[in-house]
Design goal:
Layout (H helix, E strand, L loop, with lengths): L13 E16 L2 E10 L2 E7 L7 H10 L4 E12 L2 E6 L27 H13 L4 H12 L20 H18 L8 H10 L8 E4 L2 E4 L1 H5 L3 H9 L7 H13 L12 H23 L7 E4 L4 E4 L12 H5 L23
Parallel strand pairs: 3-5
Antiparallel strand pairs: 1-2, 1-4, 2-3, 4-5, 6-7, 8-9
Helix pairs in contact: 2-4, 3-5, 4-5, 4-9, 5-8, 5-9, 8-9
Pfam families: HD (PF01966), tRNA_anti-codon (PF01336)
GO biological process, one term: rRNA 3'-end processing
InterPro entries: HD/PDEase_dom (IPR003607), HD_domain (IPR006674), HDIG_dom (IPR006675), NA-bd_OB-fold (IPR012340), NA-bd_OB_tRNA (IPR004365), YhaM_exoribonuc/phosphodiest (IPR050798)
Length: 353
């Protein structure tokens, strides 16, 4: 039974409810093994550590690890604790409930999929940017690349870190496009090709769609994610459409894909357009990481942001009577669908990309 949501939990609270499990891994600790994962519902995500009962053997922990299937819904019974400024759920005796996953047919699946955006709306906005490309050949390359990328509008942008949620890849792409467009439009004295910038931003992460696969009601990284990454799949995909433009233009698009990680990539950006996309990508990634970390830091306190390798400080918010939080105004309203009928089924910074 779903009786509490991520956004409602507090430190010290004991919980016993249903959540989606993702990002499953097994790790070593002094005296044995433990399981880590992410649990989520429609209101957010939290880290979860599954320790088992006192005296649980390594064999027992490994057995439970083998039983849990990512992308499925499980009963999570444990305690909410604080670790390095962030809330996480610790499961001890509740490990016994992880033997079996819940029957999806008896649940409202939308209660378990976290996404702060509406993918259909993101798709409409991206289509406007595609339609705004003046060069017909470049436009066709972008449109065909996205059209043939299975799950582009549903898959996450990463396993963890920025935009690691349903629809995150398309959302991150939209942010990069709009930031890059803003950079371009704000510098009228700079010689820069707007079509190349917008197209490069639209396809810079297109290869990520090939690094995730369906798992239950969610997505998980496939071997390509770790073995190859997303640059090579992106180049392979758009190479299918190189006939739509001239060699120099196509090579420029390839260069933007190849160089958008900057110092962490194989090559550095070597054109104004490539630099614009690189910085737009970095801004989207870093600011989302900073924002996510700050949400877990109390006002007037410091906290460490691991993805950007930096300390952060949450300034006390100035509140005026009747003024809503700006983030709440922009956040899409969550519409909870009625429950279906029960069925009778028994910088030192490191790369963020």
């Amino acid at each position: 039974m779903k009786n509490i949501y991520i956004e409602e939990i507090t430190v010290g609270q004991k919980i016993d409810s249903l959540f989606l499990i993702e990002n499953l891994s097994i790790k070593t600790r002094t005296g044995g093994l433990f399981i880590t994962c992410t649990i989520s519902d429609r209101t957010g995500t939290r880290e979860c550590k599954i320790w088992g009962n006192r005296g649980s053997s390594e064999e027992e922990i490994e057995r439970y690890y083998g039983l849990i299937a990512e992308g499925n819904i499980y009963r999570i019974a444990g305690e909410v604790r604080e670790y390095k400024g962030s809330m996480e759920i610790h499961v001890n005796s509740g490990i016994e409930f992880l033997r079996y996953r819940e029957n999806e047919n008896n649940l409202n699946i939308t209660d378990y999929i976290y996404s702060p955006v509406h993918p259909d709306e993101i798709k409409k906005q991206l289509e406007k940017h595609i339609s705004g490309i003046k060069d017909s050949g470049i436009k066709k390359i972008v449109r065909e690349a996205i059209k043939t990328s299975d799950g582009f509008y549903e898959k996450p942008a990463a396993k963890k870190n920025h935009h690691a949620y349903y629809g995150g890849l398309a959302h991150h792409t939209l942010e990069v496009v709009e930031i890059a467009a803003g950079i371009t439009d704000s510098l009228p004295g700079i010689d820069i090709d707007r079509d190349i910038v917008i197209a490069g931003a639209l396809i810079h992460d297109i290869g990520k769609a090939d690094t995730f696969e369906k798992s239950g009601i969610s997505f998980k990284p496939c071997p390509t994610y770790s073995l190859i990454g997303h640059i090579s799949p992106a180049i392979e995909r758009i190479s299918k459409f190189r006939r739509y433009t001239d060699e120099d233009t196509f090579n420029h698009l390839l260069h933007i894909i190849q160089s958008h990680h900057g110092t962490y990539g194989d090559v550095m950006p070597q054109s104004t357009e490539a630099w614009a996309v690189h910085h737009a990508d970095n801004i989207s990634a870093m600011l989302n990481e900073v924002d996510s970390t700050l949400k877990d830091i109390k006002e007037g306190e410091f906290g460490w942001c691991k993805p950007v390798n930096s300390n952060l400080y949450r300034f006390p918010e100035k509140r005026a009577a009747g003024r809503e939080n700006k983030n709440d105004q922009n956040r899409p309203e969550t519409i909870r669908e009625p429950e279906p009928e029960k069925q009778e089924n028994t910088a030192g910074q490191r790369s963020l990309f």
